[in-house]
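During the reporting period the student researcher (J.K.) took over the structure-prediction task from the postdoctoral fellow and processed the backlog of single-chain submissions. One of the processed entries is reproduced below for the supervisory committee.
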Amino acid sequence: MIAFVRGEVAAVTLNSAVLEVGGVGLELMCTPGTLATLRVGHQAMLPTSMVVREDSLTVFGFLDDDEKQVFEIVQTASGVGPKVAQAIVAVMKPDDVRRAIAGEDVKALTRVPGIGQKGAQRIILELKDRIGPPVGAHQAAVGAPPSAPWRDQVHQGLVGLGWSAKESEKAVEAVAPEAGDSPDVGALLRAALRTLSRA
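J.K. obtained the following structure tokens:
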């Protein structure tokens, strides 16, 4: 198995990146969130998961090990292949996936393209005891500065209301200047909703 790939980014497409490793261009299928962090000509190291089928050999690349772990666990549920698993980690952060499964949040899972009501219920039923609790600050593990608590609360509130993780992140950034020293989470959430409804 290929556990990770390190090399220069040779190309970035809509759904994949090519990393040059020892003179070989290796194509990794990646989510938009992962692709957004890559720059052609720069070095990158991505944890990977290799999916072998009779007619294909596909390597998926991830932002971090936590995302890779969730990608691999959700595939153990019947009816979930690599494409749906990738859609799950594209739409939801790893801890959001864990919360949705632990909290039996069918609605959150059905926001993922390719997952219907029955599919979401099956994922919850089969993975509830295996997915594990949210690991919390998995971002700290990859060297990102810890975010202010209000940011997480507003972000989770927006995702809970049906906005995508990416849209929620943009809205949080938009209202950040209003936070001040003692942020009012409710007011910031309403402000974030206003920016999203205008968008």
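The committee noted the following: The longest helix spans residues 185-198.
J.K. will present the remaining backlog at the next meeting.
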